[in-house]
Design goal:
It contains six helices and 14 strands. It is α/β, with parallel strands linked by helices.
Length: 338
């Protein structure tokens, strides 16, 4: 039971809380008036904010919470934290290329389950958060033109990659070797152009069984074993991948014919099995499930139609009133008794 003193205390505290909330709202409104404005539009039916090339020094906080696309290219943002993005839980595409990014907190992208595209190209020097490769909807990731980053280490440390990556761009990032991504059957397009590789092996591609396009222009090779280059070329040719053959430092006839490594073959087979599972699930979700729902709807409509027709075609039934029924039945009962 509340006593009178407690009730009086609550009656005094409640107005104070309202005043504090109002002060916070006023302060936020004042900050939003000072914030640089973005152009709001719709892109492919999604609500988008074009904030590019507007000299932002921090992530904008006054956009609508339901914004789905934010373009912050060519600004002066230096760091990203979870608090910068927690307001935008419906974000599907984020473009941050050509900023001055030097710090990205490990939990920055936590909770962005709808994010399908992310562009972090052109950062000054950043440590790539490993959880990027576990975002449940991420399909396109640009990490090109990175200097002094941990791209290879982050990818290899986070294996197996669970994001459904279909397009990965690691071009012109001064990589000395490509990451071993393990089994990643969803990857269709892979850009590794403009890197100076001192190591190139089949294991860098054996788990990419769904790869259709390998973009590898302007690659400089300085391999300790130039024959590895020919092994990679032969592997990619056998897997029907659209690519430009690597410019090996040695003629192929000078390399001993060595069969592909058993571990690479096993990895590729595992990838094919996983790709088949993904294809089956996709077929079930996109074809069979809608077909089953449509069949059930049609079946219900047919049953309802048939029942209605049966009800309309049924001849009317007339019931004899109770009084008439008792009068008509009396002689019969009497006759039976006699």
């Amino acid at each position: 039971m509340y006593n009178i003193k407690q009730i009086n205390l609550e009656m005094h505290v409640f107005p104070i809380l309202l005043v504090l909330i109002a002060i916070i709202q006023i302060g936020r409104s004042a900050d939003c008036k000072k914030e640089i404005k973005c152009q709001i539009s719709r892109v492919f039916g999604m609500r988008a904010a074009d904030c590019s090339n507007r000299v932002f020094r921090s992530f904008p906080q006054c956009l609508r919470a339901d914004i789905e696309v934010i373009d912050l290219a060519m600004n002066r943002i230096r760091r990203l934290r979870y608090s910068d993005l927690k307001r935008y839980r419906h974000l599907k595409a984020l473009y941050l290329q050509d900023n001055l990014l030097s710090t990205i907190a490990a939990d920055t992208f936590d909770g962005l389950d709808d994010l399908t595209g992310l562009d972090l190209s052109g950062a000054v020097t950043i440590k790539i958060p490993e959880n990027i490769f576990h975002l449940p909807s991420l399909q396109t990731l640009y990490l090109s033109n990175q200097l002094f980053t941990n791209i290879v280490e982050a990818i290899e440390k986070t294996k197996p990659i669970t994001s459904p990556l279909a397009h990965l761009d690691l071009s012109y990032s001064e990589l000395e070797r490509l990451p071993n991504m393990g089994v990643l059957p969803t990857l269709l397009k892979y850009n590794v152009s403009g890197n100076n590789l001192t190591e190139l092996r089949v294991e860098h591609f054996s788990g990419l069984c769904g790869l259709n396009y390998l973009i590898n222009q302007n690659i400089n090779l300085s391999l300790s074993n130039p024959c590895d280059c020919w092994s990679v070329n032969n592997w990619l040719k056998n897997k029907v991948t659209d690519f430009t053959p690597f410019d090996c430092q040695l003629k192929e006839n000078l390399c001993e014919s060595v069969p592909f490594n058993i571990s690479d073959i096993v990895t590729h087979q595992d990838c094919r099995i996983k790709l088949k599972e993904i294809s089956t699930r996709t077929f079930m979700r996109k074809v069979l499930l809608p077909a089953a729902i449509a069949f059930i709807i049609i079946l219900v409509c047919v049953v309802c139609y048939c029942r209605r027709r049966r009800r309309l075609n049924k001849p009317p039934q007339y019931r004899i009133p109770a009084e008439e029924e008792s009068v008509n039945s009396f002689p019969l009962k009497k006759f039976e008794n006699s």
